UniProtKB/TrEMBL annotation:
Organism, scientific name: Mycoplasmopsis edwardii
Single GO MF annotation: ABC-type maltose transporter activity
Record PANTHER family: GALACTOOLIGOSACCHARIDES TRANSPORT SYSTEM PERMEASE PROTEIN GANQ, MALTOSE TRANSPORT SYSTEM PERMEASE-RELATED
SUPFAM superfamilies: MetI-like
Family matches, as InterPro entries: BP-dep_ABC_trans_perm, MetI-like_sf
CC per GO annotation: plasma membrane
Coiled-coil ranges from the UniProt annotation: none
Transmembrane segments: 12-37
Subcellular location: Cell membrane
Protein name: Maltose transporter permease
Keyword annotations of the record: Cell membrane, Membrane, Transmembrane, Transmembrane helix, Transport
GO terms, biological process: maltodextrin transmembrane transport
Amino acid sequence: MMLQMIPATSSLISLYILVKLGGTLGIPAVGMLILIYSGGAIAGNTFMLKSYLDTVSPELDDSGKIDGCTNW
């Protein structure tokens, strides 16, 4: 992914701007950091989960359908 080519320290400027913006909106800095980090973690974990689920073999899906499993 292209995001891994940019160092993590380069995001400090945008992080500082977002925390400063949260302060003007009345959100404390800790609360703003929680929002920012949880949003980033959800996106990152979603990509990791998708890449893992792509490795599941079609044979397992087919055997589950034979046993009566649905898509959900």
